[in-house]
Design brief:
The complex is a heterodimer of chains A (330) and B (88).
Chain A: H1 13-20, H2 28-39, E1 43-45, E2 52-54, H3 56-73, E3 79-80, E4 86-88, H4 89-95, H5 97-100, E5 107-111, H6 115-126, E6 135-142, H7 150-155, E7 165-175, E8 188-198, H8 200-220, E9 226-229, H9 236-248, E10 252-257, E11 265-274, H10 276-281, E12 292-299, H11 300-311, H12 320-327
Parallel strand pairs in A: 3-7
Antiparallel strand pairs in A: 1-2, 4-6, 5-6, 7-8, 8-12, 9-10, 10-11, 11-12
Helix pairs in contact in A: 3-11
Chain B: H1 4-17, H2 40-54, H3 71-85
The chains are: A alpha+beta (330), B mainly alpha (88).
Chain lengths: 330, 88
């Protein structure tokens, strides 16, 4: 449901600011779906749009899907890397993310001050007033996409080996500052990512092969998945130009599934970055030429939501073939 | 024909923002700037710097790769925008 725009005199100023903050709306289907997910304990409401806990049944499906992605990735013989959902702030600054997506980024602030400041901060917080004056930026930012820590980690090793490599970045928590009532638009969620580093030909071949694999994987689960070219939600007027470039060069495509919205919702994306990350982080081959990169990501929660939306909110009653794909012989 | 003043100013913006390996004076008006090494992100900085330099605002329909693909293409776009703004 849309948040009220009216100012409520019973609330403190900061709450009123919170409530007036832009919150993405939901279609009636999305709102009804969200209510059912919460009523059944599949998702657990936090009171903040886009921030949820997950019930056991929800998490089980997500992990089963993860295992299917791992099985599909096995022929690539990926190197496994796992990272915390925090990024050194310097890495975010070097990545170009603040240029392209300043509106989605989140950085970590923490208290800095004297004891009297701590008391004042607590008192202001208790009154639900603004206590940000006592907070200073730390060396940490929230991970915006699961592949971001991979590039600097590889660059730190030195030159990219001939033939490149594939990295399995696992299922990592990522953050997008994008409050919404649409259950498929979470502020923190899991991205199941794989990354390919190599020559332009190797990277493109891998991305295109994976888009076929991904489509087959989703369709085997009974999802009406379709593939389409897409653009990232770049910020501002310069962002419209970047998005246009991205579409024109066919750098990004998505797998889309009906999920209660006006348009189908992306549950997976395949992104060719060309030399973007190589230039930002210094990913070079022995001859000094920049390595190209691509990544693919499945939105873990979105895949689960698509399954629940398509097959119903009782996994025990899903079609036998879908259950077999996820849980084996049950 | 491009006005010399306008194409010189465009070359100054390209030198400052396109991050090319070569000096813009070595480019012809028709050289493909993306082919010369301008990335998408650099082209956005060129776009914003051109707006400041020529006091114009590129409308949405012009926020695309082809408009910034060469000095000639940029000059044509700026000429069109300045013609709209010019007093009649």
């Amino acid at each position: 449901m849309p948040q009220s725009e009216r100012v409520d005199p019973a609330r403190s100023p900061i709450e009123q600011v919170d409530r007036r903050a832009a919150v993405g709306g939901a279609t009636p289907d999305q709102a009804a779906f969200r209510e059912e997910l919460l009523a059944r304990g599949l998702l657990i409401d936090s009171g903040v749009p886009g921030l949820y806990g997950r019930g056991g049944a929800f998490e089980d499906i997500r992990q089963r899907f993860d295992a299917l992605v791992s099985a599909a990735a096995a022929p690539d013989q990926p190197e496994t890397m796992r990272f915390a959902p925090l990024l050194p702030r310097r890495q975010l600054e070097a990545s170009g993310y603040l240029h392209s997506f300043p509106h989605l980024a989140g950085s970590v602030f923490a208290f800095e001050g004297r004891e009297s400041d701590a008391i004042e901060q607590h008192e202001r917080a208790s009154r639900r007033e603004d206590w940000s004056a006592f907070q200073r930026m730390t060396d940490l930012a929230l991970v915006p996409a699961a592949c971001y820590p991979v590039y600097p980690a590889l660059a730190a090793r030195g030159e990219v080996p001939s033939g490149g490599l594939v990295v399995d970045a696992g299922s990592a928590w990522v953050f997008r500052h994008e409050p919404s009532q649409d259950p498929a638009r979470m502020q923190m969620f899991h991205q199941r990512e794989l990354v390919r580093i190599g020559s332009p030909g190797e990277v493109l071949e891998w991305r295109d092969r994976w888009s076929e694999r991904g489509l087959a994987l989703l369709r085997r689960l009974g999802l009406a998945a379709e593939r389409d070219f897409a653009a990232d939600p770049f910020f501002g007027r310069s962002g419209r130009m970047l998005a246009h470039n991205q579409r024109q060069q066919e750098l990004k495509f998505e797998l889309l599934v009906p999920l209660g919205g006006i348009e189908p919702t992306a549950v997976s994306s395949f992104n060719y970055h060309r030399e973007h990350f190589a230039e930002h982080y210094g990913l070079l081959f022995a001859d000094g030429s920049p390595a190209h990169t691509a990544c693919l990501g499945f939105g873990g929660e979105r895949v689960v939501l698509a399954l629940l939306f398509t097959h119903g909110c009782e996994p025990g009653a899903w079609p036998a073939e879908v259950r077999h794909q996820l849980w084996g012989s049950v | 024909m491009l006005s010399v003043e306008r194409s010189d100013e465009i070359r100054r913006v390209i030198d400052a923002h396109a991050r090319l390996a070569v000096n813009a004076t070595t480019l012809t008006d028709e050289t493909d700037l993306f082919g010369a090494g301008m990335t998408s992100h650099a082209s956005v900085n060129v776009m914003l710097a051109l707006e400041a330099a020529f006091d114009v605002e590129f409308p949405d329909r012009m926020l695309k790769r082809s408009v910034f693909a060469s000095i000639q293409a940029i000059a044509a776009a700026i000429e069109e925008l300045q013609a709209v703004d010019a007093p009649v």
